[in-house]
Structure formats: C-alpha cells, structure tokens
Amino acid sequence: MRGFDDYLTTAQAAEVMNVTKTTLESWRWSGKGPAYVRLGKVVRYGRAAIQEFIEANVYTSIESRMSAGNLGVRPAFREVGFTKETADQRKARLTGQRELVARIGRDIRLKGELSSKRKTGNHDGAS
Hints:
InterPro entries: DNA-bd_dom_put_sf (IPR009061), HTH_17 (IPR041657)
Domain Helix-turn-helix: 7-57
Shape: elongated
Mean pLDDT: 76
Strand order of the largest sheet: 1-3-2
Radius of gyration: 23 Å
Structural class: mainly alpha
Distance between the termini: 69 Å
CATH superfamily of the largest domain: Winged helix-like DNA-binding domain superfamily/Winged helix DNA-binding domain
Helix content: 55-70%
Organism: Granulicella aggregans
Largest sheet: 3 strands, antiparallel
Protein name: Excisionase family DNA binding protein
CATH class of the largest domain: Mainly Alpha
Strand content: 5-15%
Number of domains: 2
Oligomer: single chain
Pfam families: HTH_17
C-alpha cells in the first residue's frame, strides 16, 4: 500500500512536470494528463502515475509519435477506461453548457428586474 507521501497536490505535480497548474487542470478535464485520485474535492497525483505519463510521452520525432499511435488518447488512459470525446458527445456537452448559461442569465435578469421593482415600489408591471 502506498503512503500519503506518494501523492502530490496539483501544484506539486505541475512543478515536478514543469508545467503550470492550469495546464495540469486542463489535461485532467480533457483526459490527457497523468492519472489522478479524487477524494471528494481533493485531487492528488501519484508519483508513479506521473512517471508513467512522462515515460509514455517520450518521442524522438513526430514520426515516432505517429507510429506509436499516440496522437489522441494516451496509452495509460486507454488502460484505465478513459476515452477521447466524440464529436457528438462534445456537441451534446457544449449544447448543455450553453443552455445552462442561458438559463442562469435569464435568472439573473429576472432577479434584477424584481429587485428594481422593489426599489421603485412598482409592483404592477407598469413603467
């Protein structure tokens, strides 16, 4: 069993990999970075997972990368069940996000209208 010291925070893992914390978070979101552990809201990266990720991404040229088939999903992620998002999945996700943003915008405008009516004392809807 690994000890707690075998796991790094996002900031520590980013420093070890010489990338920004934002890059590592982006990789995590898109499924391109090293495997990680989530315990509630806490995210940790195993030292071994970081090492495996680095070793899986060593290439001598673009041709070697193409021949290895690593232009999409990393091999480590294929093994643990991560897959690249299809165009239809991406479209559905983005549509859902747009609908959520529109709904939040409507709610904010409605709250603003109600607030201004309370301040002016105008409750009948007439201007």
